[in-house]
Amino acid sequence: MTLSSVLSENISTLHKLLPIGTSFDLVTRDLFLGETPAYWIGINGFCKTEILQQLFSDLQNPLYTRDGQIEDLLYFMNAKIGYAQVETKKDWDKLIKDLLSGPSLLFVEGFDHALVIDVRSYPTRGIQEPDAEHITKGARDGFVETLLFNTNLIRRRIRSPRLTFAMHTVGDLSRSDVAVAYLEDMVNQELLENLSQKLDSLHITSLTMGAKSLEELLVPHRFWNPLPAVQYTERPDVACSYLMEGHILVIVDNSPLVLILPGTIFQFTQSPEDYYKSPVVGSYFRLVRLACIPVSLYLMPLFLLIAAYYPQLARRWQLISTEIKDPVYMIFYVLAVEFILDLFKYSASISPGRFSGSLAIVGGLLIGDIAVSLNWASTEVLFYGAISLLASLSISSQELADGLRVYRIFLLLITALGGLWGFAAGSALILLSIITTPTFGGMSYFWPLFPWNGKALKNLLFRSPTYKAQPSRTWDRGPVHPCK
Fold first, then answer.
1. What is the rounded distance in angstroms from the CA atom of residue 440 to the CA atom of residue 482?
2. Which parts of the chain register pLDDT below 70?
């Protein structure tokens, strides 16, 4: 549906499409540009009042306007409106989308085009370091909920003319802005086309949870695949480093999380802290984090298997200091401690910062001591549970740590039921689950192990010096499969 050249008809259409007069934040104004009637509409809180006041003052000043009657709207816009972000549109759907996104509209009598004046100013919080990706050195800025600010943080670091932000709209009601960022000479064009087609073909009501909702739409997960398939970041330096390696960034308005495509399991072991240390120190801590993955997954199940089903080995290897009369008690101890640690970790994560320190003291001293005194847990179980928790917290990606947590609970339960055969079967099922983890574009989740790329694997396992950190060309990750 297009505009009419009659101003009263356009005003009537606006009242049909929008709750003007009912919704307090829709602000309108009847104007005269010389002798030509006009009508302005905007959203209160999205518009920069100072700029609008200056524009209205100039347009209504007879010494400034001079023309009594406007005959050419495009010429009038270019000659009389002294503001950079102004354009004309005639499609109602596009105009309403622009209005609800922040720009204001100016309708002029006699023209079937409206002026879109982009004087929006979104409310936003300060740009500060994200808590989930805290580092001891380096940049302290982080992405926020405003898409334009996030693209500026990327553009500030990569001043390449080939850096592109392609805009898409997702959600029939929310009409959320989604920007796809890439470097033209480094991106996988097939993967980029696949992503663009997928975004344009999504038919949903809204992106309720922002970037997380979009990730689940791009890469649908099955319940037996708890590991993350898409990496998130709130740090502009991390996003830019992946962008320079040929990855694609997906930026969703109203979300500080930026999606990095494609995703592999090795990406979740990386940390920006590595690159703010010397290569040797960074490589050491990267290997420590890699070692935390099997420790977090297998330490408690192995302890349960040996202590409950092979107590002679447990005493010989000094894994336990007390006599285990019944393996059922040991199974109960392990599961109880796992539940308590989960409860403690969750409570600490959602508690205000001023209470988290006190909560750690209460959980670590009081609850642990009382649990041992009441015979609800043994000292050995608390010890191995604490090591598993520390290993889990040492993993740089919280999504990967949570996925391993689900695997560990599953392995504990099946080991408690089946002993050695249960442990073997559980390990096989976990491996199968990891192998079948879906990725965007059907690319390999285990790259560069499969398809094999020794040089890329070396760069992922060890912190390379700066002059060797960036590849001379985009890594070959194998074929791209169309998304369904």
1. 9
2. 62-68, 123, 322-326, 348-377, 468-476, 478, 483-484
